[in-house]
């Protein structure tokens, strides 16, 4: 969801040439899969399309991206464990560091919750991604 929200905001701000985003997980069990159907429904309701397929984070992502967002501290630790140096480690950031209404630094996993939880995560992603984009320029 965060990738689709990020790219939608980048496009709306006319910054498509300035940003590249990709999404991945720290485990391999969703490789090749589409996002959760509730994620797709929330995005569709907001007019956002995605054709994303799951992939696993690789060490080469440290070289390919300037910032690596993680949703929670568990994912943060998984990614930091793969970092080869301080340059890599400094790229890793919790997405909610950019949340103007942060009550917690972690994005909650809505998987076991109703669609309203996915809508809540969507709103977090919009705030965080928008703040990041605005501060990156």
What is the gist of this entry?
This protein has a single domain (2-131), classed as Response regulator (Rossmann fold).
Any descriptors?
two-stranded parallel sheet; 4% strand; Rossmann fold; 44% helix; single chain; globular; 6 helices; mainly alpha; 137 residues
What do you see in this structure?
By secondary structure, the chain is mainly alpha-helical. The protein has one domain (2-131): Response regulator (Rossmann fold), CATH 3.40.50.2300. The chain contains six helices and two strands; from the N terminus they run αααβααβα. The chain has helices at 2-12, 37-45, 61-64, 73-80, 86-91, 115-136; strands at residues 68-70, 92-94. It has a two-stranded parallel sheet with strand order 1-2. Helix 1 packs across helix 6 and helix 2 packs across helix 6 (115-136). The two termini are 23 Å apart.
Shape: globular
CATH-derived topology: Rossmann fold
Instruction: Let me know the CATH homologous superfamily.
Output: Response regulator
Largest sheet: 2 strands, parallel
Poorly predicted runs of 5 or more residues: none
């Amino acid at each position: 969801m965060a990738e689709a929200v990020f790219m939608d905001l980048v496009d709306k701000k006319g910054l498509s040439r300035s940003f590249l985003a990709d999404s991945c997980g720290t485990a391999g069990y969703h490789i090749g899969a589409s996002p959760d159907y509730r994620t797709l429904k929330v995005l569709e309701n907001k007019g956002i399309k995605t054709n994303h397929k799951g992939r696993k984070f690789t060490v080469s992502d440290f070289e390919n991206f300037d910032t690596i967002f993680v949703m929670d501290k568990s994912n943060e630790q998984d990614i930091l464990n793969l970092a080869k140096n301080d340059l890599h480690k400094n790229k890793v950031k919790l997405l909610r560091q950019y949340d103007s209404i942060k009550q917690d630094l972690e994005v909650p996993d809505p998987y076991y919750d109703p669609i309203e939880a996915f809508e809540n995560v969507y709103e977090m992603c919009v705030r965080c991604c928008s703040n990041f984009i605005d501060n990156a320029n």
